[in-house]
Amino acid sequence: MRNFLLGVIAVGVIVATSSVFVVQEGERGIVFQFSKIQRTAEGSIRVFEPGMHFKLPLVETVRKLDAKVQTLDDPADRFVTSEKKDLLVDSYVKWKIKDFGKYYLATGGRTERAENLLKQYINNGLRTEFGTRTIQQIVSGERSELMVKAMAQASKGSDELGIEIVDVRVKKINLPDEISNNIFQRMRAERTAVAKEHRARGMEKAEVLRSDVDAKVTIMVADAERNARTTKGEGDAEAAKTYADAYSKNADFFSFVRSMEAYRNSFQNKSDVMIIQPDNEFFKHMQSMSGN
User: Taking residues 159-172, what's their average pLDDT?
Assistant: First the structure.
């Protein structure tokens, strides 16, 4: 009898606990009765809000859905501009479930399926907006308008899924690698051509400046040499005149001074040797001083 009572109590506890389910904050619950969705009197799917609820044990099961804002952030996708230029666009979408009944019927409550369908709507919206703009328009400031319009277009389709699109953002826009390489090669070729042109112009200007400087230097050297010859000529003439004046005033003294200068210049070094006749005119002043 005691074991029977314990068994009854245990069954009662299991039934009681299986009759209660709790929906956490940030979740919503949908109850199934033998795999059939429980509906309200009006025929819509019954959605359980956060809190404690009751269900028929062993007959009804609960499926919980995430009610928080979620992020769809897939790899970059390729879009074509109005100029037929390919762009790699990296974007993300913030979304949440708006109508849980509609969401479950459209996706089976699977987030993967919901995001695949949502991505199609977003990409269609972005493709339309990118297709009506040039690269310059996209980069120069129309990105915000583009995202708003893409979000509006995507929202039309997402309503069918019971999803509300909270935000659409374009994180990064790049050119595909093959196009980037082609553009880089073309830019490098253009820069190389410009550099060669600048170098050629610089060399040409340098040659002109060098020629001008060489011509000026030649003229300056010629002028300096001419001035030097003129000055030297004037100095020689002045010296000759001085010598002539000195000679006219005292020829003997002049002759003596010139001979002394000649002696001094001839015997500057002790090792100097001069072989001439003793009665040579060169030594006449020495002879007169020695009394010979």
Answer: 88
